[in-house]
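Hi all, posting the design record for the shared folder.

TITLE: backbone redesign
STEP: 1 of 1
STRUCTURE INPUT:
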């Protein structure tokens, strides 16, 4: 099985069939059905190796016959049940793309979604021996993208997009995680996951600010994100969390101004110290830091 197939269309229509295929379809149906019966017999006898070989040959040799869709689904189910989940995912994807009229289309969509989210959750079985493999972030995000794009109007689409953000967040790639979460706000603003995506974006920005060079721009961006969350989704549970974050960020700003003022005071730079003490007073109306800043200004002016 090659790489996961990714076509923009839903598969060939009747008018898209090559002339030779259209001419030979009627005469090929008996041969394809005979191969399908043989493959099922192998499967019933427990010979999955030969069954898989026959199913794959049907899909390859007779791609425009109903038996090909049946064969691809049977192949996917064997791989799925045996635990070879990545190859099962590919077989389901091929059915979804090539045979949207298959009676197994809905089941394939559902199983493909389950496999992709299992990969996103961590470790899945990935071969006939039942050995577990950790699927990389890039591979997992591509699988989830197929789930999203195969049913863009279904509830599975924002769920898959959110999972892409989580995958990159767990992998430590802040830029890709933020981009994935932002797409939820752009494409699925009415989804219940939209406020959650906003909150996670703010959290990532705070972590970026706390590491490295204490970039204030990240703090400001996080504040904007949390304020946006509160304004757009005031009744969501994450709105309450966002308000707490905003309060915490405000407290940190006040503490930072006071600490900066103290730094300049100890250095003997009274003018700069007073500037930051006054900034504390502008940001507060009462409290210990407010009182301390007021006292320091009095001392330095005296």
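Okay, here is what came back for every position:
SEQUENCE:
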């Amino acid at each position: 099985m090659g790489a996961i197939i990714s076509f923009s269309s839903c598969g060939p229509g009747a008018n898209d069939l090559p002339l030779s295929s259209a001419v030979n379809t009627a005469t090929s149906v008996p041969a394809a059905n005979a191969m399908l019966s043989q493959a099922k017999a192998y499967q019933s006898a427990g010979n999955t190796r030969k069954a898989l070989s026959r199913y794959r040959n049907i899909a390859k040799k007779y791609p425009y016959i109903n038996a090909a869709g049946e064969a691809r689904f049977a192949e996917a189910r064997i791989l799925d049940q045996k635990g070879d989940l990545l190859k099962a995912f590919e077989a389901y994807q091929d059915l979804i793309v090539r045979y949207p009229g298959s009676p197994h289309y809905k089941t394939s969509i559902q199983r493909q979604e389950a496999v992709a989210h299992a990969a996103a959750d961590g470790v899945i079985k990935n071969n006939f021996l039942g050995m577990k493999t950790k699927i990389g972030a890039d591979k997992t995000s591509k699988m989830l993208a197929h789930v999203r794009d195969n049913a863009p109007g279904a509830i599975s689409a924002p769920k898959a997009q959110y999972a892409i953000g989580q995958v990159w967040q767990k992998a430590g790639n802040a830029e890709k995680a933020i981009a994935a979460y932002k797409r939820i706000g752009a494409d699925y603003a009415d989804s219940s996951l939209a406020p959650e995506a906003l909150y996670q974006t703010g959290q990532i920005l705070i972590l970026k600010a706390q590491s490295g060079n204490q970039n204030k721009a990240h703090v400001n961006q996080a504040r904007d994100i949390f304020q946006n969350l509160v304004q757009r989704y005031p009744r969501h549970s994450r709105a309450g969390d966002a308000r707490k974050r905003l309060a915490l960020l405000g407290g940190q700003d006040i503490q930072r101004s006071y600490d900066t003022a103290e730094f300049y005071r100890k250095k003997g730079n009274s003018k700069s110290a007073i500037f930051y003490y006054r900034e504390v007073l502008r940001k507060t109306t009462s409290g210990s830091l407010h009182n301390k800043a007021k006292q320091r200004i009095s001392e330095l002016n005296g």
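COMMENT: The chain has two domains: 1-135, 147-235.
Let me know if anyone wants the other runs.
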